[in-house]
Amino acid sequence: MRSRSPICLKRYSLNRRGNEKWNQRLSRKTKTEKEKYLKRKKNEAGLQEYMHAANNLFKEAYDRLASAIKKKDFKEIDISHALLDVARTKIDKATNALETCRSQRNEIESK
After folding, report:
1. pLDDT by residue (tens digit) across 16-52?
2. Nearest of 53, 63, 60 to residue 93 by alpha carbon
3. Where are the domains of the chain?
4. Nearest-CA neighbor of 44 among 108, 104, 90, 111?
5. Which residues form a coiled coil (predicted)?
6. Quick check: pTM over 0.70?
7. pLDDT for 66 beyond 60
8. Is 36 exposed, middle or buried (0-12, 13-18, 19+ CB in 10 A)?
């Protein structure tokens, strides 16, 4: 094995230290990316629960509207119509938020 000169050893040790610093920066970067990914995934799960609740509200409002039409109860028709509007807006908001969350998660995964 060839012995190295003191200057060469100094460069080698500096280069190794530089690589260690680079690896530390890289690991910090991947940690933040992992944290972002987990945060987005958790957010997506919450949005899916919100979407499920909005769908349940929509089903309930639809059933109430159908029974109110059969009974010809116009007061109940107005109430169920308002519930349908609320459910529809909640579903739209949840759908848009899920789409943006998924696109951001896919963007993070592609990096």
Report:
1. 555 665 556 556 667 777 777 778 888 888 899 999 9
2. 53
3. 6-110
4. 104
5. 84-111
6. no
7. yes
8. middle
